[in-house]
Design a protein that fits this description.
Layout: H1 2-24, E1 56-58, E2 65-67, E3 103-108, E4 111-114, E5 117-122, E6 128-133, E7 139-144, E8 151-154, E9 162-165, E10 168-173, E11 179-187, E12 192-203, E13 209-221
Antiparallel strand pairs: 1-2, 3-4, 3-13, 5-6, 6-7, 7-9, 8-11, 9-10, 10-12, 11-12, 12-13
Length: 222
Amino acid sequence: MKDFIFKSSLFFAVFALVIFSACSSEPTCTDGEQNQFETGIDCGGPCTACGVVVDTTTMPNDTTTTPIDTTGTCSDGIMNQDETGVDCGGATCEACDVVIPATMSAEVNGVAWAAATVVVSEGLDGDLVINGIAADLSVISLVHTGEFAVGTYDLDMNLASTYTLDSQAFCTSTNGTTATITFTAFDTTERIVSGNFVFNCSETAGGEVTEILLGQFANATY
């Protein structure tokens, strides 16, 4: 009888130990395993979101670790908080840079003309070439050979500025005719220019003069 009681006591002791071990090994956010609906090891689900750098500190007389900041910052390289871009926009971070498209427009023989695309390039000899290309493939090409600064300059006294239609040279500016370009903004740091221009040009065949007036360009990047 005593042997039976001893074995029974031993059985219940082992059973209690198993139950205690099972209860004491419940999943946590620091057990190094992906469990309890976590989306990563010890992150996501009921734990701190994955990918968030958390600064932790151990409280006095406490064995748990408390997160300090999981809200994100304006320099963490992640589009979080209420940002509209990575680390920019929203109520907390600085506004995201807005890219303003370049434009060019003019009046060609009394008819409004506008570029669909503006392409600017800097030549090897220091020239600045501003090309406006319209939807009908007509092109106004401006060549600036002067100083890279705000001001009014003669526009290509070497027959460089042109008005082209359908990829065929339509007319070129000539010496002795009005041909000026005025830079109202010339940012050599951001490499952006704005301004206006005017020139008369003669057709390569026939000599008919074309007036290009009220020309202007803005936010052209070179």
